[in-house]
Structure prediction request, 98 residues.
Amino acid sequence: MMTICESNVAKIEAICKEFNNDKGELISVLHQAQNTFGYLPEEVQQIVAKNLNTSLAHVYGVVSFYSFYHDPQRQTPHQYMYGYCLLCERCRKGSGRV
Prediction:
């Protein structure tokens, strides 16, 4: 478990305040926090939950549901994310060479 220094706590709180501590803006807050820190450890999620007056379970549920959030408990942060498609139409057009 990582500890967050006071200056980083202040950054997270400022991000939440930027969105008026509105829990309806959770996804926007998480995007901004991830852009600031590179990933979303549990400590960041706890501070976001507290400032948006929502549960940690709700914040974690959003982080774990969307693949574009990086949570070190689920995976290590990656610089690039790759996806691929297994549709037959694309396979016939030569996507297997990629």
